[in-house]
What does this fold into?
Amino acid sequence: MSEYAPEDAALLCGVGRLVCAWTMLEQSLEKKIAMMRQAMGDVRTVGTRNRPSMAKLMTELRTMVTMRDRRNATALNEISAIERDMQRVDRFRSLIVGGFQEPAPGGFTCRDPRNQQVHVSLEQLDAETTALEQMAQRLLDV
It folds into this structure.
């Protein structure tokens, strides 16, 4: 931390917001599944022993929505769209968390899985974080 300049505060705050937004998305998904379970008469909690992955949670949500809305494919289409967006943002999040290198003008640099250097702007980081926050609300609306 001592190597970061005061002007890097926006960068550190942005990365922290991205990580927190992902956690909030997971919590929104768990909350939605718990609400649907309760409405269907099941009182189990999500992930009592170990925390299920996002893929498992999305599969469970899709299954429950299918049972609830047998003839309405609109909700399933929205879930598919959310899932695509989540996968895109998860790749971005993995790039940031696993490949962060150093602050750079206007953002920071990362190394992608192919070990290529990638510049990420603070605007791009903010846009992806906002997308995560919107996905959490979209999940609750399904």
Notes: The chain has a mean pLDDT of 85. The helical segments are 9-39, 54-68, 74-99, 122-141. Residues 9-39 form the longest helix (31 residues). The chain is about 65% helix and 10% strand.
